[in-house]
Amino acid sequence: MDRHIEEIKKEKINQLLKFETLSKIFFVRGGVLDIEADAIVNAANNSLLGGGGVDGAIHRAAGSKLLEECRRLHGCDTGDAKITGAYNIKYAKHIIHTVGPIYSGAKKDEENLSSCYEKSLDLALKNKCKSIAFPGISTGVYGYPLNEATKVSLKAIFSWLKNHKEAEINIYLCCFKDVEMEAYKNSLKSLS
Ligand code: AR6
To answer: Pfam families per the record (predicted)?
Structure first.
């Protein structure tokens, strides 16, 4: 897989945030399992007991101990996030499981999707992670249109950075498909 990584220019982020953040944001052409990050984010479902897409890939890579730990968490609400160990995924310290909305077009979808990014970053900060890799939460099976989802996720990340000026974390936005990378770039342009 082509693991192309592009950093969003610092000036661009600072201009959007109106202050100098210590954090960096990258677009990655690849999946969350192709990136070395302290925390990788899983686009899970309310049961936290595994599924298809990136969830299935993460559980396969981490091994059965992950499922054992997930069983003890008793699920997760939509828009919330919970943290576990990363088990056989050696280069990661944690997996942050978040549950995106199943897209319906309601205003609540945007709130829940933003919350997934914010709660995941809260957990990463609390657990002293210096890097975090996100998949496009809800943009696969859960049907969130990419153009909207990338805008919501970028806005949520910028807003979180504004509220956490002390945070120093590398944020990798993983694009499993080329169209995701394009959507992020267009969304970034539209925010400027
Ligand atoms: N490796 C890395 N990234 C992937 C992979 C993979 N193998 N497969 C998909 N992606 P999705 P959702 C990317 O559908 O929409 C599961 O069954 C994909 O390109 O995995 O939040 C859960 O259990 C997209 O960017 O998650 C839930 O039931 C991102 O992962 C449901 O799907 C999310 O796509 C959650 O749906």
So the answer is: Macro (PF01661)
What pLDDT, on the 0 to 100 scale, is given for residue 1? 45
Which residues form the domain of 34? 5-191
Residue closest by Cα to atom 12 of ligand 1: 138
Provide the ipTM. 0.99
Q: State if residue 75 touches ligand 1 by the CB under 6 angstroms criterion.
A: no
pLDDT of residue 141: 97
With a 6 Å cutoff on the Cβ, whether 137 touches ligand 1 is yes
Q: How many folded domains does the chain comprise?
A: 1
Give the pLDDT confidence score for residue 83 in this predicted structure.
98
Which atom of ligand 1 is closest in space to residue 174's alpha carbon? 25
Residues of the chain with pLDDT under 70: 1-3
Taken in order 192, 130, 7, 150, the sign of the CA dihedral is negative
- Tell me, what CATH number does 72's domain have? 3.40.220.10
Closest ligand 1 atom to Cα of 57: 7
Rounded CA-CA distance 25/120 in Å is 15
- The number of beta carbons lying within 10 Å of the beta carbon of residue 150 is 27
Ligand 1 contact via 44 beta carbon (within 6 Å): yes
